[in-house]
From TrEMBL, chains A, B:
Gene3D superfamilies: Winged helix-like DNA-binding domain superfamily/Winged helix DNA-binding domain (1.10.10.10). GO terms for molecular function: RNA binding. It comes from Thauera propionica. It holds the Pfam family ANTAR. Residues 368-429 form the ANTAR domain. This is RNA-binding protein.
Length: 438, 438
């Protein structure tokens, strides 16, 4: 018969298990963040290559393909880990079904890469089409990071994952801004709704970076702030102003395309430096948490052992733990000693030990409660995106739109009404019944 | 190298695993609900036994002890299941650390039973003290059911668990009402704040039963409504009126104690019938879901196999699944056939199969999203209790109160201000900073 103490210790072990699975997810997130960065660079180089009819960035693009492939290989190496195969695969990651489905979607998106690259190399597609195809792949990878953040189980690590997701998402908006702006400058005039779209992307970036700042922790925040002073922000704002002031009557100077691209790229690379620091911090936070939880579990066990030795000289810790360790250490479950420990009427644990167990139980229960509250707070920062995803899903199923069409519809509505995307998504969901009507 | 398809199938397997772990939790919940019922009966019999100075219910109480012990043995048998021992214990239940901590708290509470029983047998304690000690044990068991409901992963099963928890909680309020009323009638006048407390318990019951009705499903609801017609509700309301109208100037007829007790007990037993039906439905729902998910996974695999046979005659399903099944079935990972399947540029899957995988991926992703939304909706019904638990925790840590004192303070505040307990809890939490000040 297992005792309360056995389950108290088993709960600790679960915490350690959960942290180890979280550390595994964080490794995937690190690899994915590197791959996203390389694909963003590849997208940018492909864009210039196509826009210049193959005259520029040919060599850069070739070199970039190698870097992208290396980053993809890292992600695939993670996916090939032996613990992710076989019957127990679900138990080795957090949020099994959800994360695996996201991985499947991301892998499927990545499967499109060779074809996109071939089309770019043969100059078979327009720059904006290539950008859109790369962006779809990056979107699938970002969704994976989002879900990893949403299923995380430790408040500190969750906060860092929320920060990293928002940094990556903000950087992706910056990458899309680069592409749109470069195309506009190169063409000598902004494309159809490019001005509105750039305004939206600028606003979306600042929202993401605000959330990133709220969750990234003191150290990364300091690095981020130091970086602001060397980022080409003044130049970026000047070029944005030129871009936004342009219109059918005010053509853009196409010679500025290069300056715009260089300025945006420099900023993206600097954002990536913060990303790398944050990803490293993620791994360290996991390791630190695992070590701390192991230490606490050991201290807890020693405390109980000391107390049990004091109040019951012949009761070693193994016996105290009842069924659990007894299964391994004591031949028969009904060993008289083990029985004695479990007869609470007789208080064989001794009052001090009994009291300590109660204290440990209540402390553990309150700690788990506090952790769960903090987790909820970190996850709340992910709610907006969930609203948007749900609204997209609704539009796809009720109006038969593709994912991209649904997103554009939401974004255009937000832009034209001057409302935030999440507000429009919330309003869409509130109209679910109306939309579902045939 | 693993394919998107391998992770699509792995996600399905995770869903089945999760459902199996949910089924295991449901078995615990069933055993716990039976134990709670027996302890409620034991509490009632002990109450009468002590109030009559041992003159009444002696034999009933003895018989009840056997029933209680049998129900406790069922719970302990579940806890002794081999999958709950050893290193992988955390992976065999949902919400590992949290559920195990609750189990430890419940076991610790149960450890007090022999002493309570000995005190009752020797008539060493007052009826209200015995009631309070039993209620604490029942409270720990209810908290376990609550957490099992809160960590459940299937919307349909979650709804049933939320219904069962609310039915059990409502029934426990009914049991506390029985004890308070019995003591008041027996004493010939209501105890200090018994009138207010009974008003609170009546209101709390109706809240719980409303939530139960919202989640229990059509079939149990029909049984519940049929039962209402044979429950002694008119008699109960009449006796409640007598009780609530009494005061220092209006003594109670102590001869009515028996009628009150019998009427309340009959109702509790009838509530238990619904509980049993609901618990049975829970097991059936789990089994049904597991079977359906297995079928779906099989159909999905057959569909893909059929499609792969049509578009690629020599590609069996095993090969399609890439690394995952290849590990078991194909000797070398770099088998040329397997390689071919993975080169997406060449579209070796054939357009139909490629399209099917995309459809399956999107359908699975949307289904998981819809499930998660439904789950959130079911869990929202548990939010009130979480608020109350958090407010209790805050008062305990900031004001140094015991759990019971914290609860009484919240309840008294709610009663005196005519507000709902959850409102008072919310207001308490909003004042966290003020309360935390030394």
């Amino acid at each position: 018969m297992k005792t309360a103490l056995a389950f108290l210790l088993a709960a600790r072990r679960c915490e350690i298990d959960d942290l180890e699975r979280l550390a595994l997810s964080c490794e995937l997130v690190q690899a994915v963040s590197e791959l996203v960065h390389q694909l963003q660079r590849e997208r940018g180089a492909s864009n210039v290559f196509l826009a210049s009819d193959g005259a520029r960035f040919g060599a850069q693009r070739e070199a970039q393909l190698d870097a992208s492939r290396a980053a993809e290989a890292e992600v695939r190496a993670w996916l090939d880990r032996p613990e992710l195969g076989g019957e127990r695969a679900g138990a080795s990651v957090l949020g099994g079904a959800r994360l695996f489905t996201r991985i499947a979607l991301a892998l499927h998106a990545l499967d499109a890469l060779p074809e996109v690259r071939a089309d770019v190399a043969a100059q078979r597609c327009r720059p904006d089409a290539a950008t859109a195809r790369y962006s779809e792949i990056v979107g699938a990878l970002l969704a994976l990071v989002f879900d990893a953040a949403d299923v995380a189980v430790d408040p500190e690590v969750s906060r860092l994952l929320v920060a990293l997701f928002n940094l990556m998402q903000g950087k992706e908006f910056a990458g899309q801004e680069r592409a749109l702006g470069a195309a506009s400058f190169a063409a000598g005039h902004p494309a159809a709704d490019a001005v509105q779209a750039i305004q939206y992307l600028v606003e979306a970036q600042s929202q993401c970076f605000r959330r990133f700042e709220a969750f990234c922790g003191v150290e990364v925040l300091r690095q981020w702030q130091a970086l602001q002073s060397i980022m080409p922000l003044a130049e970026l704002e000047r070029l944005r102003r030129v871009l936004l002031a342009s219109g059918p009557g005010a053509p853009l100077d196409s010679a500025r395309a290069e300056g715009w691209f260089a300025c945006c790229s420099q900023r993206l690379d600097q954002l990536h430096e913060v990303e790398v620091a944050l990803a490293r911090g993620l791994g360290e936070a996991c390791a630190r948490k695992i070590a701390a939880t192991r230490d606490e579990a050991r201290n807890q066990a020693s405390l109980l052992q000391a107390l049990s030795a004091a109040s019951e000289p012949r009761a070693p810790l193994e016996m105290l733990m009842g069924g659990e360790l007894a299964d391994e250490a004591v031949p028969a479950r009904t060993a008289p000693g083990a029985e004695r420990v479990e007869a609470p009427g007789a208080e064989p644990l001794g009052p001090r030990l009994g009291r300590s167990i109660v204290d440990l139980l209540h402390a553990q229960s309150q700690r788990l409660q506090a952790m769960s509250d903090e987790l909820d707070a970190a996850r709340a920062a992910l709610e907006e995106r969930k609203l948007i995803e749900r609204a997209k899903g609704l539009l796809m199923s009720c109006r038969g739109l593709s994912e991209d069409e649904a997103y554009r519809l939401l974004r255009q509505t937000a832009m034209s009404q001057g409302r935030r995307l999440a507000e429009v998504a919330g309003a869409t969901l509130a109209l679910a019944d109306v939309l579902a009507r045939p």
